[in-house]
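Good morning C.,

I know you're traveling, so I'll keep this short. The sequence:
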Amino acid sequence: MISSLPEGEGGRRQPAGWGYRIKSPAIAPPRLAVLADPPLAGREKKFLMQDTGWLWAVFTLIAAASQTARNAMQRELTATLGTVGATHVRFLFGFPFALLSLAGLMLVTGASLPRLGLSYWPWIALGAGAQIAATMLMLAAMGERSFVVAIAYIKTEPIQVALFGLIFLGDKLSPGIVAAILIATTGVLVMSLKPGGAPSTSWKPMIQGIGAGAMFALSAIGYRGAILNLAIPDFVMAATVTLAIGLVLQAGVLSLYLMLREPKVMRDIVTAWRPSLLAGFLGALASQFWFLAFAIATAASVRTLALVEVLFAQAISRFVFGQATTQREAIGIVLVVIGVALLIWSH
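The tokens, ready to paste straight into the viewer:
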């Protein structure tokens, strides 16, 4: 949840562009030696959790829409590039846009890069590594089942991210938000778990999808932990620099892997640069807004509102692929909408 606005000198609140900045003579760097260090729930968090109203929800909706479009493009690229190749596209063609965003922010605001302490790197490594694994599992699940069903399995993530957020970051949730997570996730399951399906052929994509959700949950916790670890009042800079570093790490690791193990896939990625470039841009755009949302709201709140991505995927299936909406899917959509509405009201 968004905490109260930090106070400056004399107890006055200090306005400064995006939300508010803290006017304080000195801010001690956070002390985070291990991933599960509880102090993230305390003093470090208040520097970033500013009174930004509904801005986190706007960021999340933009991110969800961009990610839906990117997922659809990556699904098409899987046929020609394979799972690893299609996974790499979002990172290899996304990090230049993240670097441009960071450079533009520094140019416009005149801000300098924040200091990155040793405790920052375990968080960013968790976020980047888990995201690579999550993307590969997601694309594999999409290859086994329909686009909507794969996304639905993955969207069991909010329950997992709520648990991980409590364990690693000390993110506590109100009863209203917990209820919203359960209602919205139930709606997703109602949409995906259709009666009459063949269990013998549905276990694999279900495990892949839920596994992808778990990895996405850990990735969200890792990135949010990295953003909070910077403990700077400018949440836009904290989010943007973390995104740039994460994408550079991911692009470097996967490029090295493919050049050593599957050089043909790397050549195929370069050959398919046109659709890959658009997928990379959409991925960077989605990530930029995810990170902005993580900087000012709990990961559980952000990822629960992100369930609207299922509604976006349903719209693509209906209006692009011509698939009709069943009564069961309609009930699931209503539950997702109720859960999202409760989440917004609880904030």
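Safe travels,
E.
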